[in-house]
Structures are given as C-alpha cells and as structure tokens.
Amino acid sequence: MPPSGVNLLKIGNPLQRTRGTLAAHVTMRTRNRTIFDIRMTSTDSTSNTVRPAGPPVNVAGEGGSTVRLGTKALVLVYAVFLIAAITPIFLVKIPVLIDLPNHLSRMHVLTESAADPILQQHYRLTWGLLPNLAMDAFVVALYPMLSVFEATRVFLATTIVMLVVGTLLIHAALYRRLGLWQTAVFLVVFNQVLAWGFVNFLFGLGVALFTAACWIFARQQNIILRIAIFSTAATILFFSHLIALAVYALLIFGYEAAQAKPFKNGIRGDTLRHGMVFL
Prior knowledge:
Elements: E1 7-11, E2 16-18, E3 21-29, E4 34-43, E5 57-60, E6 66-67, H1 71-90, H2 100-112, H3 117-122, H4 134-142, H5 148-175, H6 192-196, H7 199-217, H8 223-240, H9 242-259, H10 269-278
Antiparallel strand pairs: 1-3, 2-3, 3-4, 4-5, 5-6
Helix pairs in contact: 1-5, 2-4, 4-5, 5-7, 7-8, 7-9, 8-9, 8-10, 9-10
C-alpha cells in the first residue's frame, strides 16, 4: 500500500492521440509537493514526426519549485568524473597496457642516446616526415622537465582528457547543449584499444574529435582563418596517427554532406567554400 496522501500515478491528459502521435502526462505527487512531472510523446507507424508534449522531466523541490542542474554543477560533475578517470594512471609507475613497454623502450632511446655511448653503438636517431609520432614528440618535448615515466603518464592522461572533451564538444557543437547522460563517455574511455596500448591512435582520435567540433563551431567564420587553423590541425593529426587523420576527414565529410542542400543550377557557393577549407 502506498503511504497515505501519496498519489503514485496521475495521468494529466490520458493518452491523447493526434495525427499519429501518442502523448501522455505522468505526475507523481505527495500532499504538499510534486516529486516529478513527466510529459512523453511517441509515434506509431502512420507518422514520422514527434511533437514534444512539454518539458521532458522536471524534478521538483519544496513547494513544487523546479530544481535544475546548473552550469556550475554540471561542470563540477564532469570535472569529478574526469579526475576519477585519470587518477589511476598516476597511481602506478607503469600503467598496465600491453604495448606500453615497447613505447617506453623507444622513449628511453630517444631521450638518452645522446648521452649514452652504449645506446649510440646500437641506435641512430633519424627524424622524418612520418605519421604515428604523437607520443615520441610529446615525451621528448617534456623530457627536460619530466622523466620518461612521468612524461608518459602525462601523455596518457592527456589522451583520456582529449577523448572525453572531444566527445563532449562534438555533442555540444551539434545540439548546442550538454546534460548528464553524456557522462556515459566515461564508461568506454578505458577500452580494449587502450588496453592494447595503441596510444598514438587514441591521442590522434581525441585530437580528431576536438578539431571536428571546432570545425562545426567555426563553420561560418572567416575562410582564411579557418584554412590556417584547420591546416595546422590536420598536420598535427598526420604526425599523431594516419588513421586518426582519416577519421577526422570522415567526420568532416559526413557533417558537410548532411548540411548540403539539393540544388539544380550548379554547385552552391557555400559548398565550394567549405570544400576548399576541407581540402
């Protein structure tokens, strides 16, 4: 039996059907306040359009006042999750990633060979215009300040941050809002690709997501500025990992293809403009 004075389910507008749309209004109340107020819509096979019947979910406080998660609270939630995600990396000297010992060995040669005669007998450093160099450039740049192990942990933490932030920015760029359900990205940030130690690809993937989000945000900005910014970003992606560059190109191509409108009399000016920046 429910407690006295609690109305567990109240149908405000009982299942109204209009032009293929099914709407329901569900309210849960106590004597003095509303616990929640949900309005839902769905469609059947005769309609492809869903028209919102009202605000999706309102959580009410004392006196029926609505409690909403503010921007500061949302940022705090994401910050807590992000700190929790990168903390394990700094709790161990060598994170347990299958291919990481090979990466660390390469980092040792890159940073110590100049001062180690034994390494000089077996290795000769030759930098070239090659992809898959994200970790190499990152660790070597930090080596005067940090040890190889410390710089590697910072690189791994940066990779996770880029993956998370890039995913959130993609959603924000497309829908102009963020909510709590986007925290689901933290469920997959520690994945099999990371467990295998493919860190250059994951770093590049984070950069690709971040850059694709910036492309959407800056789509109407000055074309010269966009060419300069995104050419630099594409260069960074090339040196990070070639597949990450391909993912970035696929993201941009898919977005621009979705934005393109049918036209009859030749190629539209905006299509040429965005295509030139993309190339």
